């Protein structure tokens, strides 16, 4: 079985992380920003799992990635609830238009 | 064979991520994110993390993505005439596109420079023929028991908090 070198995983993860960051900066929509953040969390998980391949006895990287997935799930639920409240207040999801705490 | 699968799935993930970046329609972006998650799950399988790949598909594709699509549908614009011609349009200004491209390309260049310069000395045995399910289960119940319980409490708190936030407590605004 041919082993894929770990650098290839790292390059793919770096590309996905950069694209996710560019999405989070570019999109003027709160849910678009969330899409970018999810992509960045996934890219970090690829790194953890690629290194965990060389440690099959105590797979710390995979366990870390598992907890990252849990935190991402919790984060996206709370973020969507906040976005729905913000949309109820301001009737907009453009982060540039949301500039006060109370209307 | 394995190499070809690796490049095919990483190409799928990166191309659909680029589609999210350039897409103007947010629903299309969410479906492209689905493809990206599938590609990343395939990369997990190729790295020997079978349990993580299934978790990725179940949690991200089955949960988070459906939630995001619901969020997109619930937060649509109020100007109806713009909606009918260009649904789910995301406004993207030129300056933001420029700065996003600069930051993303700069970060990718920086990271790939570091990865090219680094020289990893891998000592461990790469064993990817065995399932990691038993190891993960044993580790979660012995050495990682405290983070496991904290994650359970975190999920409970997030569930209660999200339900409390999403409740419509002030009907004067709606």
UniProtKB/TrEMBL annotation, chain A:
Main location: membrane
Compartmental location: Cell membrane; Membrane
Cellular component, GO, one term: NADH dehydrogenase complex
Coiled coil: none
EC class name: translocase
Membrane disposition: Multi-pass membrane protein
Organism domain of life: Bacteria
GO biological process: ATP synthesis coupled electron transport
Catalytic activity field: a quinone + NADH + 5 H(+)(in) = a quinol + NAD(+) + 4 H(+)(out)
UniProt GO molecular function: NADH dehydrogenase (quinone) (non-electrogenic) activity; quinone binding
Residue spans crossing the bilayer: 6-25, 32-51, 63-87
Biological role stated in the UniProt entry: NDH-1 shuttles electrons from NADH, via FMN and iron-sulfur (Fe-S) centers, to quinones in the respiratory chain. The immediate electron acceptor for the enzyme in this species is believed to be ubiquinone. Couples the redox reaction to proton translocation (for every two electrons transferred, four hydrogen ions are translocated across the cytoplasmic membrane), and thus conserves the redox energy in a proton gradient.
Family to which this protein belongs: Belongs to the complex I subunit 4L family.
HAMAP family: NDH1_NuoK (MF_01456)
Record's protein name: NADH-quinone oxidoreductase subunit K
Automatic annotation (TrEMBL), chain B:
Cell compartment(s), UniProt: Cell membrane
The protein's enzyme class: translocase
Keywords: Cell membrane, Membrane, NAD, Quinone, Transmembrane, Transmembrane helix
Single GO MF annotation: quinone binding
Source taxon at top rank: Bacteria
UniProt key word Oxidoreductase: no
Pfam families named in the record: Oxidored_q3
Coiled-coil regions listed: none
GO cellular component: plasma membrane
Membrane-crossing segments per the record: 6-22, 27-47, 53-74, 94-116, 145-167
Membrane topology: Multi-pass membrane protein
Major subcellular site: membrane
Catalytic activity entry: a quinone + NADH + 5 H(+)(in) = a quinol + NAD(+) + 4 H(+)(out)
Enzyme Commission number, as recorded: 7.1.1.-
Similarity annotation: Belongs to the complex I subunit 6 family.
Function field: NDH-1 shuttles electrons from NADH, via FMN and iron-sulfur (Fe-S) centers, to quinones in the respiratory chain. Couples the redox reaction to proton translocation (for every two electrons transferred, four hydrogen ions are translocated across the cytoplasmic membrane), and thus conserves the redox energy in a proton gradient.
Name of the protein: NADH-quinone oxidoreductase subunit J
Species per Swiss-Prot/TrEMBL record: Dyadobacter frigoris
